[in-house]
Amino acid sequence: MSLKFLVVDDSVTMRRIVINSLRNLGFDSFVEAGDGKEAMDKLQADQTINFVITDWNMPNVSGLELVRSIRGSESLSKLSILMVTTRGVKEDIIEALNAKVNNYIVKPFTPQILKEKIDQIINAG
Question: The domain at 5-118 falls in which architecture?
Answer without folding.
Answer: 3-Layer(aba) Sandwich (3.40)
